[in-house]
From TrEMBL:
Pfam families assigned: Nitroreductase (PF00881)
InterPro entries: Flavin_OxRdtase_Frp, Nitroreductase, Nitroreductase-like
SUPFAM superfamilies: FMN-dependent nitroreductase-like
Stretches assigned to the Nitroreductase domain: 8-163
Family per record: Belongs to the flavin oxidoreductase frp family.
This protein's UniProt keywords: Flavoprotein, FMN, NADP, Oxidoreductase
Protein name, as recorded: Nitroreductase family protein
Signal peptide range: none
Length: 240
């Protein structure tokens, strides 16, 4: 039940006590929990970059100034989809490694990395600390990869700032259950459910939001997807 309560009370924190230092024991617990996440065939096709170095974190913020917590949190983790390890295995056995001929290996590795990330979030909150997931590290994916010395076939998925929160946050409302949960087959639903959620979020009145929920995503997806990710995937031999 304690685990269920932790997950039900999930909140994102962006303001951290700069003087708080995560202990080695706390960090180890978070990383152990992360490594115990489920993965396809127990392949564990991800890696975690633990970034304590202030200079590296300053460079990350310079690339992504909208997320200063990457520097001010106690530690910053970067979760990467890692197909380099299985490449090493293929080389060891002298077999082909045609991952660039389809998307399924990449989907598998991204899923493994995401599951490990979520375990880290839950473990962080179980320790009474806070975190924020940073997907925007992919905005400057080439520069971030060079900064972290990532080899080919390793893809940054998201970062995670962890620390002691200084600002209390409320639990954010989620979409109506009928818009998300389907039984046996996918069931279409009326747009009114989305309109109702817009109303719920307007009443929630999160200070950082400047648009209603649906308009935020209408505007976001009206633009072309981040082309840097596509270039990166080809450059690093995920695709031909």
């Amino acid at each position: 039940m304690e685990a269920l309560e932790v997950m039900k009370k999930h909140r994102t924190y962006r303001n951290f006590d700069e003087n708080y230092q995560l202990s080695d024991g706390e960090l180890k617990k978070i990383l152990q929990a992360s490594r115990q996440a489920p993965s396809w065939m127990n392949g564990q096709m991800y890696s975690i970059i633990v970034i304590k170095d202030r200079e590296i974190r300053e460079k990350l913020v310079s690339l992504n100034p909208g997320n200063p917590h990457m520097l001010h949190s106690s530690v910053f983790l970067v979760f990467v989809a890692d197909l380099r390890r299985t490449q090493k295995i293929a080389e060891h056995y002298g077999v082909d490694y045609p991952i660039s001929e389809g998307t399924d290996p990449l989907i598998t590795a991204v899923t493994d990395a995401a599951l490990a990330l979520e375990n880290a979030v839950i473990a962080t909150e179980a320790l009474g600390l806070g975190s924020v997931v940073v997907g925007s590290i992919r905005k400057d994916i080439v520069e971030v990869s060079k900064l972290l010395n990532l080899p080919e076939q390793v893809l940054p998925i998201a970062g995670l700032s962890i620390g002691k929160p200084t600002v209390e946050m409320r639990v954010k409302p989620r979409l109506p259950e009928m818009a998300v949960i389907h039984y046996d087959t996918y069931q279409d639903y009326d747009y009114q459910l989305i309109a109702d959620y817009d109303d719920t979020m307007e009443k929630f009145a999160e200070a950082r939001e400047t648009k209603i929920w649906s308009k935020k995503f209408a505007d976001y997806f009206s633009n072309r997807p981040n082309q840097e990710v596509d270039k990166f995937l080809k450059m690093n031999k995920f695709f031909k």
